What does this fold into?
Amino acid sequence: MRVTHIHKITGVSGSERHLLALLPALRERGVDARFLGLDVGGTDAPRFYRELRELGVPFEHVRCTHDINLRMAASVVTAVRRARPDLLHTHLVHGDIYGAIASRASGIPFVSTRHNDDRYLMGAFRHVDRFFARRCRRIIAISDAVRRFLEDAGLPRGKLLTIHYGLDALPPERSETTPEELGVPVDAPLVLAVGRLIAQKDHPTLLRAFARAHDVHPEARLAILGSGPLEQETRQLVQRLGLDGAVVLPGRQAPRAWLTRATVFAHSSAWEGFGIVLLEAMLAGLPVVATRISAVPEVVADGQTGILVEPSDAEALAAGLVRLLGDPGLARSLGDAGLARARAEFSVERMTDETLAVYEAALAPIPSASATSRQ
It folds into this structure.
């Protein structure tokens, strides 16, 4: 079986990290899994391809410029015809749309993975999404929360199913800088957050919560790994809260050195399709303080592997941080339980098994109307 995955690439975040786990696992199981990237210039896309190359996964590039681009559509169709896969597997909106066009032009069936409960699908764009999803054989949601959201957005319930992300180890790439190199004292408790500096991640609530926690634990530090359009506003809020020297904003970083150094992992998102960074934190043995939204309760077991609080509630988030920073025994117990849960419930093997079952179902012959009527 040959399967080509299509995804817009700007760097390595949740969906890209998912592919870096899934694609080599599929190849180990005998699937000729390949990748077709819709590349955005001037981004961190080369980092993704470096990791893909190290994993031995074949790939091609198509230049991605405007959202609607007939030349890019033609290039995708040409690349798909050249690869001659048995199945296309699309990811995110650009992959879905251009993959659907290639599927129609080539006659190759496709399946789609939806990685987020994207709010625009509740607006006018939902009609466009439904149109391009008509040919899709199966639609994989990365969480039950995303699956329910897609049902509400009008996608056909019979095509929808859930396959949670799987991860077996921390990202192998070395961090560009370490906490010590950026001035975090060796003995300071470190609260870590990983995510783009965008509204969805709600870092203002995290910063206000940490300001309260820092009053109780003045030796503690907070690091937020990520870049994005709200970087200037984030830095300004750090200054207004009087947290200069206590908060580190190193930009987009490979997280390994930070995960292995952190004391507590914090996640303040307003919504979240899955949050693969939560799995990374659990694999690092970190206790988690996170918002009780979307898919997070499917990953973090409240009171067992972490503490869940209501979104936008800085006081509750602060209380969780204060509790874990002040009780190393509890933090260690929750972290150990998180590591055990990650290994038992979110393995790459389980994810691969479930994905292969989707491929087999998608490639099964579709009964003709006449055959159905005879049954």
Remarks:
- The CA atoms of residues 30 and 111 lie 19 Å apart.
- The chain has a mean pLDDT of 93.
- The longest strand covers residues 2-9.
- The chain has two domains: 2-166+348-365, 180-345.
